[in-house]
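Predict the assembly for these four chains.
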Amino acid sequence: MSVPNPSPIRATKGVETRAAILKAALSHASAAGFEAITIGSLAEKTGLSKSGLFAHFGSKEELQIATLDEAIRRFNEVTTYPALAEPRGLRRLNAMCDNWLLWTARCDLSGCPMMTAITEFDDKPGAVRDALLTHMQRMQASLVKSIQMTMDTGEFAADCDPEQMAFEFFGILASCYRSRNLFRDAQANVRARKAFDRLFASAMVSGPASVDVMKPVAKSFAAPAKQKTVARSTPR
Amino acid sequence: MSVPNPSPIRATKGVETRAAILKAALSHASAAGFEAITIGSLAEKTGLSKSGLFAHFGSKEELQIATLDEAIRRFNEVTTYPALAEPRGLRRLNAMCDNWLLWTARCDLSGCPMMTAITEFDDKPGAVRDALLTHMQRMQASLVKSIQMTMDTGEFAADCDPEQMAFEFFGILASCYRSRNLFRDAQANVRARKAFDRLFASAMVSGPASVDVMKPVAKSFAAPAKQKTVARSTPR
DNA sequence: GACAAAATAGAACAGTCGTTCTATTATTTG
DNA sequence: CAAATAATAGAACGACTGTTCTATTTTGTC
């Protein structure tokens, strides 16, 4: 959108339309699910013919997997990679939280496609489930690693259970999506941020008034009154 | 199954087959989702004709709502109502946790139909979403009430935020389902129980060694080694 | 600009979808 | 037992599904 790509280096047409298809597919999947992706409606939305669109993927299953891959790619683009710019430890972990809470809005998605995919395919054997499982295991491992790094910096106690923390981390996000999308609760992100803070506080070296140490961390979602989704200016 | 219903009081046939349909529909919905409920396959599974089955509901949407209602009914049957037998406060709250973690197994469901419904309909306006929203708001309110009762008994601190706790409560369950169904993690329930304990511990009147107070609570999911889904004998 | 390759369109396919008819059986009620 | 009612079956519907063909057009390369 902001980057014009006129002609100097032009990716062999097919790649472009494929990207356009995947963008529409992801948008649709995030709202209605991956099973709701239909070749007919997607062809109409992109201005292609059914067979023309179909030829790009060879099967609906491949299209679903490609859409899932695209979701992960965009997720990393706006969530994981920016967080890596922060120093290891609690600051990076908090960046992950904040980015994660904003990622669907930043990508113009109405729901989290990964969450949707999980409930759609967790009990449906096949190539899509396999791809999803791989992605989610990788994501989980990356999260566990970030938590371990926070233990290494001494910000989290040495007897922490990173797997358990990752378990609860994911739960907070899942609950946030429910509050947001089903309950239409504008404070969902604030609730989630509070939960993250509580989770992290309990992981810190135990001592008197250890909770207060966390206070300055929750900066992005501090205002419960006014409704703001993306407060920060777009980073470059 | 265990209750033979031969003939003395026989509910007008239609009610019986309707129940059989809903049982099959719920089983299918819990595994593949509510949109995957198809009248043709459901007719085949119940031995009815398509039109014969259809006549019971009048539309697919009505069938989906009826299935959702049935899910809530069974959930309350095995989760909410048994918990009400426990005295108000932390004991009842813990019973809710334990029952909730076991309810799909007790009802022979492969996933939690409510979770599925949430991701399927949270962004799809219509009668199903309306019904779902009502059910979930009711469920949320009931949970908040249980938490407030635990504050009333003095087991939780007076400055607790019941809504926030309910938020995190739901997240723990969502994460549990993911670990169970996607990751096939046999320890999912143990993880969830630990998370509940941590959540409740942090809500207790703060003081030294307040965490140890919780220890005896987690009784049902204490053994991480051996895999057991339903350890208790069936209550009558 | 010619040629090869890639991208797209159009038509047709066998299936399935939810739904609406009209009959025909079961069941309950009098 | 008879009459009334409820429950079910069967066929057909238009619309849509994913997929496979065979053209035709567009694109990149020499």
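The interface with chain A takes residues 31-33, 35-36, 110-111, 115-116, 118-124, 132-133, 136-137, 140, 163-164, 167-168, 170-179, 181-183, 191-192, 194-195, 198, 202 of chain B (CB under 8 Å). The radius of gyration of chain B is 20 Å.
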